[in-house]
Amino acid sequence: MEENETSTDFVLLGLFPRFGHPSLLVLIILLLYTMAFAGNSTLLLLIWLDPRLHAPMYFLLSQLSVIDLAYISSTVPKMLANHFSGKRSISFLACAAQMFAFLTLGLAECILLTLMAYDRYLAVCNPLRYTVLMSPKVCLQMAVSAWAGGALAALVHTVYPMHFPICGSREIDHYFCEMPAILRMSCVDTSVYEMVKFVSTIVFLLVPFLLILASYTVIFLTVLRMNSLKGRNKALATCSSHLTVVSLYFGQAIFIYMTPSSAHTPEQDQIGAVLGTIVTPMLNPLIYSLRNKEVVGALRKCLGRGCSCSQECSSLNFQRSHLHLTS
After folding, report:
1. Which among 113, 115, 122 has a CA at the least distance from the CA of 222?
2. pLDDT digits (tens, 9 = 90+) for 26-81
């Protein structure tokens, strides 16, 4: 135990503690974190600056970028600080706060992905009423419902597990405080809570996943009946990006939370967590931007402005220096 650890502190063993080259892992995670932070920040900036992106789809996409930024920042900085400082302890309250933030963001993202599928359904299948049904007020209500729903559910799943008694070692075989890792340390029967967790997973993961599949089934059938090849390709490109993100997110979440904590190893938990909290936030801006001509166009426009601005500044400085020499 570390000297500054109290009886209620936990010890985070870190990412794959039995791996022989921890510095290499930290370097890779730092690189992924930087890419995720830069990609999501750039996407947020483009949506804010370009008037063409002031649409319901991009408003919801901006909320996804905010969630991804907070998601990756709720775990990685602490892991990096522990690695470089050599102090692995985390207090009880800090552990609970980290778990609450992680669950809130994960559940909010699940709700938001479902709302984004509904947005695409309205845009493709009911375009004449789209602007009415997806008004700015409705978009704001969607964002608030995603955040509030995630926070309320996360509160339950933070308070309940954190009150289970811990017997023996308080070492968490993970790089952050996650629910399965806490449950694995408990010395009481957690089968009742495992059932509660399973029901919650059905409500927050399986039902949204089925709704998304149903929405995209209807969208796909509608797209097949389109006469315009351009419209068909645009709809498929937008929807395929969203489906890719949905597959990445729900795949790892269902594996971790729809099975009992004893059914998978700490290493499997960490692989799922890395995919969900680090890799997916890094890939999301790439997936949505590379296949979206409007986002790519906004990026080129922004870069073009920067180049033209720098050229104008250089020309102005040259003129000033020329005037100074002649005078």
Report:
1. 122
2. 899 999 999 999 999 999 999 998 888 889 989 999 999 999 999 899 989 988 88
User: Both tokens of residue 171?
Assistant: 């070492």
Cα 200 to Cα 149: distance, rounded to the nearest angstrom: 12
SS3 of 181-237: HHHHHECCCCHHHHHHHHHHHHHHHHHHHHHHHHHHHHHHHHHHCCCCHHHHHHHHH
User: What contacts 7, CB < 8 A, 6 or more positions away?
Assistant: none
Query: In the numeric block, which tokens belong to residue 111?
Result: 């709700």
User: Whole-angstrom Cα distance, residue 305 to residue 156?
Assistant: 48
Structure tokens at 190: 């957690």
* Angstrom distance (rounded) from CA 14 to CA 82: 8
Residue 228 zone, left/alpha/beta (φ > 0; ψ -120 to 50; rest): beta
From the list 65, 22, 23, the residue with the least C-alpha distance to 44 is 65
Its pTM surpasses 0.70: yes
Distance in angstroms (rounded) separating the CA atoms of residues 131 and 62: 18
